[in-house]
Amino acid sequence: MAAAGPAGRIVVWDAPVRVFHWVLAVLVVFSFVTAKIAGAWLEWHMRSGYAILALLLFRLAWGVLGSSTARFSGFVRGPGAAMRHLRDIAAKRHAVQPGHNPLGGWMVLFMVAVLLTQAISGLFVDDEIATQGPLAVKVSNALVGRMTAIHSFNEWVLVGMVALHVAAIAFYGLALRVNLVGPMWHGTMPASAGTQAPRIASTFLAAVLLAISAGFVYWLVVIFPKA
Question: Tens of pLDDT along 61-103?
């Protein structure tokens, strides 16, 4: 069902997407900082990684079952649509639309892929000093070495993706006068003529999916390694 916003506005981002976005942002920064501090903080780095993995699994499920603006089918477009959006930006005739634009949709896919790579590879890392991923004992030393290398390299790919994401938000805000941060915080945007309010899915469903995702990650990192 479509949710009503304040007068003259429509709800474009549901609460689960907004909470996911901001909690994920905090955890990514926390993970990066604790990895650099190292020492006893690496235990918290691992826990943060587990939380990130649970959030990503939830987001994948919400991308299929969630609100219309959260569904991958609602914002993932082909490369042609992304190129047209770039040309529209250059010509200053871009349209403001509910949800992700074609470029933003690709950014979401790449970001989720990079984060999943980082979180999954972290399950297998072994620094041969004090930190070992929970699944390192389940695979060969060769695979552990490859996963550790991927985790180390992909960290900087992730930093680059975050920097690109922040730069894009700044560009839209400063050059195009399009506020992308506000709607992701309060969930609404001004309603324009012909704009259809997105369908908003149940928050209870989101809670169930998050619980399932967290339960699976708990099984994966606590129970399965001991089996």
Answer: 999 999 999 999 988 888 888 888 888 887 777 666 778 888 8
Say how far apart CA 83 and CA 69 lie, in whole Å: 21
Identify the band that residue 31 occupies on the pLDDT scale cut at 50, 70 and 90: very high
Whole-number Å distance between alpha carbons of 196 and 186: 18
**Gyration radius from the chain CA atoms:** 19
CATH class label, 9-226: mainly alpha
| C-beta neighbour count of 187 within 10 angstroms | 19
Residue for token pair 């169930």? 208
Q: What ranges in 38-140 are assigned the alpha helix state H?
A: 41-65, 72-75, 79-90, 102-122
CB 150 within 8 A of CB 118: no
* Runs of H (alpha helix) within the chain: 15-37, 41-65, 72-75, 79-90, 102-122, 141-174, 181-186, 203-218
Phi and psi at 12, nearest 5°, equal -110, -30
Span 8-37, average pLDDT: 94
The encoded tokens of residue 82 equal: 């992304």
d(C-alpha 168, C-alpha 82), whole Å: 14
| Other CB atoms within 10 Å distance of the CB of residue 115 | 24
Residue 119: closest CA among 176, 68, 215, 48 = 48
Q: Does residue 10 sit in helix, strand or coil? A: strand
Dist CA 220 CA 65 (whole Å): 23
For 164-173, write each residue's pLDDT tens digit.
Answer: 999 999 998 8
Q: DSSP code of 190?
A: E
